[in-house]
Automatic annotation (TrEMBL):
Family stated for the protein in its record: Belongs to the binding-protein-dependent transport system permease family. HisMQ subfamily.
GO MF: transmembrane transporter activity
Listed PANTHER family: AMINO-ACID ABC TRANSPORTER PERMEASE PROTEIN YHDX-RELATED, MEMBRANE COMPONENT OF AMINO ACID ABC TRANSPORTER
Species annotation: Humitalea rosea
Keywords carried by this UniProt record: Amino-acid transport, Cell membrane, Membrane, Transmembrane, Transmembrane helix, Transport
Source species taxonomy: Bacteria, Pseudomonadati, Pseudomonadota, Alphaproteobacteria, Acetobacterales
Name by which UniProt lists this protein: Amino acid ABC transporter membrane protein 1 (PAAT family)
Membrane topology category: Multi-pass membrane protein
């Protein structure tokens, strides 16, 4: 007697999944075709032909070359570059600050732990947009004028127009220094891997940090000296009412980075604290009984076990920081939302393609961050039988 297909659990699951996918595809198809038809009836276009048209507006801060006559596609690229810059720097700073505050939260010193606790409670319970506005209007806009800038060593200047610092100008042959630096970094990783292997085999950790530092720095310095030091620095100089030369960072960028990093670090600190506390206290006691130093106990025993608890929520915080960077529009920083979703949309009127491209970018970045962190998470997970 034959069994109907739907009575088989596997076949039934495949059938319902295929039916669901078909329903979703039909829904998207109906939505897109209906939108295109309604727009065409109103004389509006939903195509991407506008990307080659000249944008005709300037962008104050940009990582890649851009002129007012460039196309809308170039504007999209500039917005992506600025957004990724904010995300990368913000994630790095938030992670470092969060690690320090999370460890301070667990400190046996009452004053340190109390300061860390109040730092977390005060900042994470305040809206991020309010913090961005406070840093921009309440701190950086109140800095002195360029003539009265805060100065560090005649090289770095901070005023109400931004942060000015020297910019490198590599000369001919500097590429050899970069190659030597890359080779030194690769050799340092090999030494580190060999040291970890010895640790697993013998239980003894050789002192490799000085050797790693020497491998990274000394070859690059030697090549740099032999090639005639092919690197100059363009130092900013006050001329007239503002500084000329060097690299300038606008106040909006500084305020955005500080606000995003501090706000996100509060959540990362709590994630790290909870992850460390999830490790059995017996691990610490066993390490202490064996005479392991507290710093090595935290680095080689506690943190590796805590990472399996820390990484999953940490991914969410990285994604939140990337998406929260869109709040830069409140203080005029030219990120993707500001130059693309705001200025470009108002000028071109192409709402559908502009919104779709913006959503696609943030979705792609989120998936990329999740992919990288999930791969690291699989490596950090404990192997179980």
């Amino acid at each position: 007697m034959t069994t109907p297909i739907l009575s088989n659990a596997t076949a039934r699951a495949i059938f319902y999944q295929a039916l669901t996918v078909l329903g979703v595809v039909l829904l998207f198809w109906y939505t897109i075709t209906n939108t295109v038809e309604n727009m065409s009836q109103r004389g509006m276009s939903a195509g991407f032909d506008f990307l080659d048209v000249s944008a005709g507006f300037g962008i104050g801060f940009k990582l890649i070359d851009y002129r007012e006559g460039d196309s809308y596609l170039r504007v999209f690229e500039v917005g992506i570059a600025n957004t990724l810059l904010v995300a990368v720097i913000g994630i790095a700073l938030a992670t470092v600050i969060g690690l320090v505050v999370g460890l301070a939260r667990l400190s046996g010193n009452w004053l340190i732990s109390t300061i860390a606790r109040w730092y977390i409670e005060m900042l994470r319970n305040t809206p991020l947009l309010l913090q961005i506005i406070a840093w921009y209007f309440g701190v950086f806009n109140l800095l002195p004028r360029p003539r009265d800038s805060v100065e560090w060593g005649g090289l770095f200047f901070l005023n109400n127009r931004g942060f000015y610092l020297p910019s490198p100008e590599p000369g001919q042959g500097f590429g050899l220094t970069l190659i030597a630096l890359a080779a030194g970094i690769a050799a340092a990783f090999v030494v580190r891997a060999h040291a970890r292997q010895r640790l697993f085999e013998t239980g003894k950790l050789p002192r490799v940090i000085p050797a790693m530092i020497a491998l990274v720095i000394l070859p690059a310095l030697l090549v740099f000296a032999l090639t005639g030091q092919p690197l100059a620095w363009n130092v900013p100089v006050l001329r007239g009412f503002n500084f000329q030369g060097g690299t300038s960072v606008p106040p909006s960028f500084c305020a955005l980075i500080i606000a995003l990093s501090i706000y996100t670090s509060c959540f990362i600190a709590e994630i790290i604290r909870s992850g460390i506390q999830s490790v059995s206290h017996g691990q610490t006691e066993a390490a202490r009984a064996l005479g392991v130093k507290p710093s090595r106990t935290m680095r080689y025993i506690i943190l590796p076990q805590a990472m399996r608890v820390i990484i999953p929520p940490l991914i969410s915080q990285y994604l939140n920081l990337t998406k929260n960077s869109s709040l830069a529009i409140a203080i005029g920083f030219p990120d993707l939302v500001s130059v693309w979703m705001n200025t470009s949309l108002n000028q071109s009127g192409r709402a559908i393609p502009i919104v779709a491209m913006t959503m696609g970018f943030y979705c792609a970045v989120s998936l990329a961050v999740s992919l990288v962190m999930n791969r690291y998470n699989r490596r950090a997970m404990l192997s179980e039988r």
